[in-house]
Protein 1
Amino acid sequence: MTKFVFLLLFLISSCSQISYLTEQGFSQLKLQWSGVENSELIKDPKVDEETKRKIKLIEEYKKFFYTYFAKNETSIYTKTSVLEQEAVTYLLIASPHTSITAHEFNFPFFGSFPYLGFFSKQSAENYAERLGKKGLVTWIRPVYAYSTLGYLEDRILSSFFYYSDLDLAELIFHELFHTIFFIRDDVDLNENLANYFGKELVKIYFKGDPRLVEYEKSLGHEKKVASKIVTMIELLEGEFKKFSGQLTDEKADQITKSFIEGSFIPQMRDFCIKEHIEAKICMSETEWNQARFAAFLTYEEKQDEISDIQAHLKLTPRDFYLWLEKEKELIRKKDKEELDFIKYFNERVKK
């Protein structure tokens, strides 16, 4: 049956999809094969003590996560893979020149995604070049962790070890949340929910730890920066709308370049100085274009709405998750397609 499904998938996919799926599939299998049992690495005298400590921490975070949500532990993160590069994958986001909208990549059976992931940076750059010829703006960023949503036995990756203890916990909680809650064809919501629960679980796990004070301070700064960037993106979209459908790709690029250099970067820099926010959180000096702005909205735009829903319900993160599961089941039974889940959830809490 499995072979038939993959054959059908190949038959109804485009050549570019077949090439993409084949390359990423083999790379994923290579990553799976390279995994070494954590217990072996911890006993290995050649492995440094900091790496061993991080592996043990991840195992503790995993145990806490499944205990907190009353779930049976899976075999995820029982093995570790050492990468040949710093990042595990490279995320490619594309957008039209004339709008800040993530281009949707559609795959039969798997649904739609506002990005593509590549295990090779060169492959991501090659694909970006092809999309550029099709009239899309692209942006590529390194990714240090990802989830296969429980379909495969995800590995601990050597890229995880770059994170501090609290940031590592947030990362693990984020990725594990994808394995217990996922709504097909709504990547924005899935990412924002995982972001929300990842942060909330860190606060619970590290309650009383003095390091939590600095972590929460950073979260506050990140929230301020995200809100400011969203406001700035709205200004750029307003500039696009002034042309009432007569906006060309060339003109859109000119407007975007002028906006970034003349407004976005200077205002973000001044904002961060005024708010005493460090440059690495501010992100005002890095490369920006329509695709980068679209990617930012994918991961940040719904954060406040999710927090507001949870605050309105006055539920613990665990009970909030159970509420989401219940609502998800009701939606499934009603067979609602193309549903704005955030809007639906907001309507439900106001009843």
Note: The chain has 14 helices and eight strands.
Protein 2
Amino acid sequence: MTKGGKPMKSNTMQTEELVKKFKELFGGEGKILCYFSPGRVNLIGEHTDYNGGHVFPCALTLGTYGIVRKRQDNKIRFYSHNFSGLGVIDTSLDDIVYSQAAGWTNYPKGIIWAFAEKGHPIDSGFDLLIYGNIPNGSGLSSSASLEVLMGTILNDMFQCGFSMIDLACIGQYSENNFNGMNCGIMDQFAVAMGKKDCAIFLDTSDLSYDYASVKLEDAKIVITNSKVKHNLVDSAYNQRRNESETALAELQTVVDIKGLGDLTEEEFEAHKDAIKDPVRQKRARHAVYENQRTIKAVEALKSNDVETFGKLMNASHISLRDDYEVSCEEIDVLVDLAWSVPGVIGSRITGGGFGGCTVSIVKNDAVDTFVETVGKGYKEKTEHEAEFYIVDIGDGAGFLKEAN
């Protein structure tokens, strides 16, 4: 992955520096283990995962590193290299409860809690240093990356025997029930099950999935970070989910479906009047049409029809902007600017919404123009500096090495 045209550090270089810091903080004795868990970007299929539809995410080569060592007592010591000013945060297995004061440690604590809920209580503490190179608030799933990282570490250290799909589900369960964010399964699944150079075509209604190759011959995937995150994202996300669930219940009075993803566009149009509120009708329309767009987009990609894939990405953004109303002014500026650049095949918002990032497919010979045009235009219109990432698709979470 490159940021502003510069190569980012390799896993090897990154872990060596982090192990050195770990030893400074916690001492060098004992077995020190290194893990990595990626971020993710969703190419198409947004806000369909909790509506029983399809998604098409991929894991990235940027993510969250974990350097860890098991302890013989019940003490837990956390340290984030990103928030070094907070120092080492001490807690214990007797204090696995959510609190606002716990900050970022609520995510790993939630996984410890979820393991106990699923029948595998953790019986000794550990020292953990984490470092993430996912931009904060970017919508590239830093929380899911941390959750799956913690799950992978605990599963390994305590030999719990969970599969990677189990760990994805535990991450979602933790975020829903410990952290209070009513997210779907997509983020954790992509982080856990990522595969190099492939996106995951996932049916969230039953967790069946297929890998589709995303080796673009003459184009790149470019993520543009708006550097904006509106703080209504969590509450609005839960509100959208509630609206969708109410619309589903209304539709279920006239048609036999388990989720909005069960409907074709034609079936939705035939039954939409069962949804009494026009806002809820728009939310349901997005979920139904976005699911069908995702199915068509994957078919197009498998047929090497990248142009059609790009048009479906554009239509996805319009629906997220107008029907689901999870975009914002800054993101719309980025997408409009992207659409104006020759060589941009498609561009849309990605992630939960209300800021964060766009994802674009850009022809190789247009990438420099894209970065210059979109960056300059965005600065002029919003006074914010965008960041650009030309991304590589990587593998899911896993063990890296035992430190020397």
Note: Confidence is low (pLDDT under 50) at residues 1-10.
Protein 3
Amino acid sequence: MSRAATTGIWIIATGVIVAFLYWTRAILAPFALAVFLFLTIEGFATMIDNWSRFLKIGHARILAILLVLGGFIGFIGLMANGIAEFGRDAGEYENKINGLIQDAYGLVHMTGAPTLQELLFNETGQRFFATIANATGDLSGDVMLILIYVAFLFLAQSGWTQKLDNIFPEFEARAQVREVGDEARRGIETYLWTQTVISALITALTYGTLILLGVKNALFLSALIFVLNYIPTVGSIVAALVPALFALVQPSMPGWVPDAPLEQTYVYAATVLAAVSFWQFSIGNFVQPRMMGETLNLSSLVVLLALAVWGVIWGIPGMFLSAPLTVLMMILFAQSDATRWIAILLSSDGNPQGKGESQAPRDAVDAAQEGGA
């Protein structure tokens, strides 16, 4: 087959796959979220099992499930309470925002500054908030479906080994597929678990910082930061900006900021931005790479492109899952000579399977055969 024909087949196949993922996003996106939630719980259960000397793995799984569900319910409660608190002070926030809009128009010598209501309820504002509301509503409506998927994944887990043996009766093929599956699972579990620990650490430090700086509704903002840190690169930037924006429109300033009305607002917001950005930058650049190691062996450009592509295909779920999904694709592409070049392009160091791991499937087969002999 000629190179042009091969290239054409690749382009057509890619288009068909992307179209399939897009048109089936209502089914596949919740299931993908369920799979990654399942893997996060499994990683948590493994950690509990390793730490505890008297709990069996089954009990560790139950404890992990209860802790994750408790954390999820607590997060929903925090978000609801935070929204209610902002709602109680809505009038004061609106007055502060209107004042900032007028100041901004005055700085550029413009008149006729619009109010917040005029900006929100014009055609552009209504369309923007309708899009956000629809996306959030769809995700909220899928929560119960995701939990049902997770429950059935746990129930089906015990039969996976037997199914794999029946699908691949030949020992060598079965051992290679099992090794590839284990590698993919270990990589995704490690990424998700490490990301959870990192997000929790940043959230705790940010919450303490916001309390010290006197930012209102700090618990709500910290919970929002915890979720945003799951989105690669862009999530960290937004997580640093959100508290500063809320501090900018906060009705009352702490006593330590300057007395000048206009200065106090911007100095306070800049201080909050610098403090929150410090934790995002220091932990993201020094702590996270040490904890994650070679798990996320993706090029920085690939991470941004993956975020954009998966966001277009699956919306908000795709943005959260862009990094682990791309890691999974890289591992799978690396198993075939025909697609290995794609895995090399996706990887950060040109070695998609990690240093010294390119022969892992073959080594596993040889070791298993020697043990069987």
Note: Confidence is low (pLDDT under 50) at residues 355-373.
Protein 4
Amino acid sequence: MPFITGGYPSLDVTTSAIESIADAGASIIEVGIPFSDPIADGPVISASMHDALQAGADPHSVFNAVRVARAKTSVGLIAMVSVSIVTRIGAKTFISQAADSGFNGLIVPDMDLSQASELSHLCESRDLALALLVAPTTSPDRMAQITNSCRGFIYLLARSGLTGEQKSSPEIADSVNAIRSFSKLPIAAGFGISTPEHVAAVTKYADAAIVGSALVRRMSQGDPVKAAADFTRLLATGLRTGLPASSNSN
């Protein structure tokens, strides 16, 4: 489940990258809606969001880019968006525009649980997934509340802290088992997953591995569309074989 920043380095790249990443082996693609104060994002994704905003990207232009891509691919598309953007546009309007553009769901990392019920119902009305975040430190009571508010899948933070590339594979078995005691929804794990080896380790327990910073960084080097597709193809070897890939994955 690769992550790209909408509008980075351009909206045309976003449209083309969605198609190329899908062809390279992604089952679902997460598209970040640029935000001036990224939530828990490390320096790579924060910088990409800053650049996208400077280039004029906003929720509506990202929706348009996704709409063009949707006409060319059936890959699952999930929007990562701050609740402040949803609130500013209006939850009902935002959900409608997201669904009409071709998104299949939302991840709202900073939403207060008191707002979750309304947004979950709105997503249900448009058949959109809604994923909230579960951290390694989340208490059982709060985990029950979070998972009960999710639709489609649950986002597990594979590590505490900020997003960014890491050398070691995350240990998620205990967290996955805890979540599955409350919910049968699929679990996608993200944060610090950056190699095929990490993908293999994560998908041994979770249903999907989310890769963000490592892919966005590569998109800043050379041809962004080709870089995204090539890296996705490499990451997917972790899904296909569960075996370590060549050392040049780093």
Note: Confidence is low (pLDDT under 50) at residues 161-166, 241-250.
